[in-house]
C-alpha cells in the first residue's frame, strides 16, 4: 500500500504548539502517530511532502526524523517551506536513517511505481509574486524535471509529490501540471494548506491526473491510502 500525509509539523522541543491554528491541532502529533501505527505496515510506503519538523537546524530535526524512522513502513520525505533544517542529500543520507529516503532531484521505485517530486512554490498569479519568487518558481520546475528524468526503465505508474499545490490562485493548473502531463504522471499529492487555506484545495481527476490534498489537518491526521 502507498499512503500519504503532509505537514506533520513535529516539534521535539515542544516550543512550537500548533493549536494556534485551531483546536483541531491539539495533540496533533499523538493523533498522527496513533493513526500511523494503526494503519501502516512495515511493507507499506508513506509519502511525506514537506513541513516535517519545526527545527531550524539539522541536529534539531534529527530527533523528529528518528521518531519517523521508527514508525512502520518506508518513508519518502520532501522539503517543505518550513523545513529550514534541510541540508544537501549527502548530509541527509549521512544520518543513516534506515527507513527514510530523501527526495530531491531524484526518484524512488516502489514495486514498479516511481515516486518523483519537488517542493514547488507560490503561484505566479499571487499578488506579491516578484522577481525572486520567479527565480525560485522556475528552479523548482527544473527540479521536478530532473526528478522525472531520473526514472529509468519502464514503470507502471508515476506519482508526483509536491509541498505547494500545483495550482494558480484562480485554481487553474500551472506549469508543474503541464510537466507532469508530459511525463505521464498519474497521481499528484500536495500539502501546505491549513485552516482557511483549505478552500484552495483542488482534488479529483484534472487533465488526466488524480490530485489529492494531504495536509495533515485536511485529512484529520489520518494517513491517506493512495494506492
From TrEMBL:
All copies of domain Calcineurin-like phosphoesterase, residue ranges: 2-195
Top-level lineage group: Bacteria
A Pfam family matched in the record: Metallophos
InterPro entries: Calcineurin-like_PHP, Metallophosphoesterase_sf, Pesterase_CT488
Protein name per UniProt: Metallophosphoesterase
Native species: Tissierella simiarum
Amino acid at each position: 500500500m502507498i499512503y500519504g500525509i503532509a505537514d506533520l509539523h513535529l516539534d521535539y522541543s515542544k516550543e512550537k504548539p500548533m493549536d494556534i491554528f485551531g483546536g483541531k491541532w491539539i495533540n496533533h502529533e499523538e493523533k498522527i502517530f496513533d493513526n500511523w501505527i494503526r494503519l501502516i505496515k512495515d511493507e507499506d510506503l508513506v509519502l511525506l511532502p514537506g513541513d516535517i519538523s519545526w527545527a531550524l537546524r539539522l541536529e534539531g530535526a534529527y530527533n523528529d526524523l528518528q521518531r519517523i524512522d521508527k514508525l512502520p513502513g518506508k518513508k519518502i520525505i520532501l522539503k517543505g517551506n518550513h523545513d529550514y533544517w534541510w541540508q544537501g542529500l549527502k548530509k541527509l543520507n549521512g544520518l543513516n536513517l534506515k527507513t527514510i529516503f530523501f527526495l530531491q532531484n531524484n526518484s524512488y521505485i516502489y514495486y514498479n511505481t516511481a515516486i518523483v517530486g519537488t517542493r514547488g512554490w507560490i503561484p505566479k498569479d499571487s499578488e506579491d509574486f516578484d522577481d525572486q519568487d520567479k527565480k525560485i518558481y522556475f528552479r523548482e520546475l527544473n527540479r521536478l524535471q530532473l526528478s522525472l528524468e531520473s526514472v529509468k526503465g519502464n514503470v507502471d505508474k508515476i506519482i508526483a509529490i509536491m509541498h505547494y499545490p500545483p495550482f494558480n490562485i484562480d485554481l487553474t493548473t500551472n506549469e508543474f501540471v503541464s510537466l507532469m502531463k508530459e511525463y505521464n504522471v498519474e497521481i499528484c499529492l500536495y500539502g501546505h494548506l491549513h485552516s482557511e487555506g483549505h478552500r484552495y484545495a483542488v482534488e479529483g481527476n484534472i487533465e488526466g491526473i488524480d490530485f489529492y490534498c494531504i495536509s495533515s489537518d485536511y485529512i484529520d491526521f489520518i494517513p491517506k491510502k493512495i494506492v
